[in-house]
Amino acid sequence: MRAPVVSVDDHRGLGNSTLVPSLMLVGWAIGLVVTALVVWSPHVLFGYYGPSMHLVLDTVDACVALLVAYLLHGRFTRRRRLQDLLLAQGLILLAVAGIGLTYAAESLDGSHGGSLDVWLPLAVRTAGAAFIAGAALVSPAREVPVASWWWAVVVPVAFVVVISLALWAGGPLLPTPLGPTDGNGALQPPILSGHPLLLTAQGAAAACFFVASIAFTSRALSRADPLLHWLGPACALAAFARVNYALFPSLYTDWIYTGDILRTGFYLFLLIGASREIEQYWDARSRAAVLEDRRRLARELHDSVIQELALIRMEGHALPADEPTRGRILGACDRALDEVRVAVQALGTAADEPLGFVLHRAARELAQRYRVHLEVDVDDSIDAGPEQQHALLRIVQEAVSNAVRHGRAEKLCLRLARNGDGRRLVVKDDGAGFDVRRATGTDAGYGLISMRERAGSLPGALEVCSEPGRGSEVTVTW
Question: How far apart are CA 173 and CA 168, in angstroms?
Fold first, then answer.
């Protein structure tokens, strides 16, 4: 008995995405234009009075940060990736810095406009930027040994508590971040007028976000991750927000600055990425539910109809060899089994599977079923819709079945390649062959008629080349 053999030759190419670099360029362009207008245009002020709007922006930014951190935490518990953990922790730190941390620091400091209410949020935001930069630079495949919910929460909270106590204890030694005339929102102050330590912290945060923007964009080019695609431009806006905070430092929370606008742009881009990820998640869940139902039907057909047909076929072999109906019964059973097997395969196949993968799997099954050597040479860059895939599979199945049953073929070759602007599928065998003119005339069998109809539905054409003793070649072009 011959063992089934399948030879595979893959031709795969990687496509370069243009969307990801374009998004990053948009983020950098927005940041550069806004910063340039504020620095060099005398008609554009860096600050506008709006206490209620400032509070709304802070709240919205913090809520978006917590939402994205929650999504990343869910990723981390499923995949245990260090990148997801660091991103979630960085966003939690940014959210904590934006939700009442300034007011809590003012209460601890005991006076408005003191030092703690400036240095504490600044330290937390700088740490958050460092965590995000670390997430961008760490290997995406690196895992954490233990994935628990408290990993993403305890570290940021512990850091905030420790830095709060340290700054509170050293309150009298903290430098004054701004002079008495710096940061007035109504007037255009001198550029870079804050304390050197304040400018250094803002610059460090900006550098972290710039690095993260470039690194995330580079990683997104090779990964189909909707959230990762938007992290590059988002971090670019966050970096320019830190640059604006360094250029025009201020203590006034009743004023909206260009840094606040760019920072909100950072969270807006994050929200877009999060919404895309949520959409992708539910779309995947719905597809999984449909596929599971199809597989359930496939199992039912396999365990009931196929078994009954196999029993009928076995009983048909028990009929006397000279019984006139024996051949018709066995032939009908074989055709019915093939039909049901194709239906089972179609139900158990995902609709978005590439054509090359489907043909490779079908070739393996046909080689095992008929105990033949089936060579496969497929250009995997060729794709087809679900209906076209089904028609091509039925043509391949019919061609292989005819070659084995009628031509006694032992070796077959399945090729899929481009044919100019079209595509071509060829099934060639080393069987006994047949008279094509007679088989395609009035005596044409149902198999050839079915293959021609399926080829025409692609739309395409079917060509059969064969001679007695020289095998056969079935070609489909579309």
Answer: 10
223: CB partners within 8 A, 6+ apart:
140
Strands 461-466 and 5-9, by their bridges, are unpaired
Contact at 8 Å (CB) between 414 and 378?
yes
Task: Compute CA distances 33 → 37, 247, 311, whole Å.
Answer: 6, 15, 76
- Residue 29 in tokens: 């362009």
The predicted-structure confidence for 356-391, as pLDDT tens digits, reads as follows: 888 887 888 778 777 888 888 888 778 887 778 888
**Residues making up the chain, counted from first to last:** 478
Tell me if residue 372 falls in helix, strand or coil. Answer: coil
Token representation of residue 96: 């904590």
pLDDT tens sequence across 160-219 = 888 878 877 776 677 776 655 454 444 455 566 667 888 888 899 999 999 999 999 988
Determine how many CB atoms are found less than 10 A away from the CB of residue 224: 9
Q: What is the 3-state secondary structure (H, E, C) of 234-300?
A: HHHHHHHHHHHHHHCCCCCCCEEEHHHHHHHHHHHHHHHHHHHHHHHHHHHHHHHHHHHHHHHHHHH
Q: Reply yes or no: is the peptide bond before residue 42 cis, omega within 30 of 0.
A: no
Q: What is the DSSP letter of 173?
A: G
| pTM for the predicted model, two decimal places | 0.61
Place of tokens 């005596």: 443
Amino acid at 435: D
Q: Tokens 């670099």 map to which residue? A: 21
116-137 and 226-247 are packed helices; what angle lies between their axes, rounded to 10 degrees? 140
What SS3 class is residue 52? helix
